[in-house]
Amino acid sequence: MLSAKAPAGGRRLGRSATLVVGCVLAGLIALLAVVSLFWLPYSADDTSGGRLAGPGGGHLLGTDKLGRDLFTQVMTGSRIAVEAGLGAVLLAAAIGVTLGVLAAFAQGWLDDTLSAFLDILIAFPTLLLAMLIVAARSATLGSAILAIGLAQSAVVARLVRILVKRVLAQDYITAARTSGTSWPRTVLGHVLPNIWPTLVVNLALQFGLAVLAEAGLSYLGLGAPPPNASWGRMLQEAQATFTTAPAGALAPGILLVLLVIGVNLIADGVRETLDPATRRRRT
């Protein structure tokens, strides 16, 4: 009996450690982003540090090819990454949950049409969508968030549609409707509370994907314009000087990876904590 219980305790400890490590990794970068709102070592356009200076002399990570402080750019990039992730996820959640619930209640040809529309939107490349939005507007962080959020909203909508249909087939929904509960109250009181654990985990994963997508768009010049120092733009600018000043590429690259890993660990920990079925299987 004792040997059977020990692994379960170890698994519970492992799940807690996963969530803690994820919170630490993502939390430190989020803290860096918050600090950047109120304080930066140098201004974004300060080029007084000298070209490609090494760490030290008032520059923690050194300077880039224009003489700008790299630590200042890393701090600014953390803020842009968090803003892009949160903005895209909130937009995807607002649109995706609404479309997903509507699609779940649709029947016949309307259900087929909405499902086909969501599949087409999911298959539509985010980069191409970003190019279209940038062509209509301009290359800004807002345009990148809009493109990423619209692309992710289809993924969220399809997931919500599947989850809501599954909940609507349950007996307690039939009982609620028989008792005279309106559909809006049924959705708010029974449907959404039963799908939110899975939805939250998916949105956490979408956050990490949004951060990567914003970095990719900025690398191609479709994200926040200069002097905003997105991590993707930093990687693009540092590739030509990597051998002489590797910090310009290593710092944003490492932080980008750590943020995505941290968010994924949080999603994994939250899933195991909120999903009773997962807890039963693991224990």
From TrEMBL:
It is a multi-pass membrane protein. The keyword Transmembrane helix applies. Keywords: Cell membrane, Membrane, Transmembrane, Transmembrane helix, Transport. Pfam families: BPD_transp_1 (PF00528). It is found in: Cell membrane. This is ABC transporter permease subunit. Belongs to the binding-protein-dependent transport system permease family. The chain crosses the membrane at residues 20-42, 84-105, 117-135, 141-160, 199-222, 242-267. CDD domains: TM_PBP2. One of its GO terms (cellular component) is plasma membrane. Residues 78-267 form the ABC transmembrane type-1 domain. The keyword Transport applies. One of its GO terms (biological process) is transmembrane transport. Gene3D superfamilies: MetI-like.
